[in-house]
């Protein structure tokens, strides 16, 4: 039960999963969440750090796509300059649009990874699609009730992630 929610990797920020790391774990395609993973909700466009990271992945042949539950207006504008394969209103944690993005990238389950900030949306969607997941903490972690409730739910999942990593050492 817990297994499907435990991320395969956890980084403090998206660009800490750099080209060298992704190559070392056999990744050729990255499916990206946008909101609070690459930029906070209130940033309509990707910043220079996002573009630099995407370029560094492209340089080693890693392809990227966007799969977001946000609406088309948000994602189309964010992706305008990037021109990545992109799905809005994607319905994560369902796998449908993750699989579509993977087909756009021309990658397989073994060499595709999904990166996002939500355990019950992004990590679950990746595992439903049979691919690995990188979790990053949300860039802007609003302290409203719902967010605090979700963080509380996530605690056993992150504990399990740390336990597994301790075992690997
Ligand atoms: Mg998000």
Task: List strands and helices in order, with pairings.
Layout: E1 9-10, H1 19-24, E2 29-32, H2 48-59, E3 63-67, H3 72-79, E4 86-87, H4 96-105, E5 112-116, H5 119-128, E6 132-135, H6 145-168
Parallel strand pairs: 1-6, 2-3, 2-5, 3-4, 5-6
This protein binds magnesium ion.
Quick structural summary:
The protein has 169 residues and is α/β, with parallel strands linked by helices.
Structure explained in plain terms:
It contains 6 helices and 6 strands, in the order E-H-E-H-E-H-E-H-E-H-E-H. By secondary structure, the chain is α/β, with parallel strands linked by helices. A 6-stranded parallel beta sheet has the order 1-6-5-2-3-4, with helices on both faces. The radius of gyration is 15 Å and the shape is globular. The two termini are 24 Å apart. Bound molecules: magnesium ion. The site of magnesium ion has 7 residues, from loops.
CATH architecture label name: 3-Layer(aba) Sandwich
CATH H level, superfamily name: HAD superfamily/HAD-like
Strand line-up of the largest beta sheet: 1-6-5-2-3-4
Largest sheet: 6 strands, parallel
The helix/strand series, from N terminus to C terminus, equals EHEHEHEHEHEH
Q: What's the CATH class, please?
A: Alpha Beta
Work out the helix count. 6
The coarse silhouette is: globular
Distinct small molecules bound, one entry per kind = magnesium ion
**How many domains, in number, for the residues?**
1
Instruction: State the CATH topology.
Output: Rossmann fold
Please give the number of β-strands. Answer: 6
Query: Rg to the nearest angstrom?
Result: 15 Å
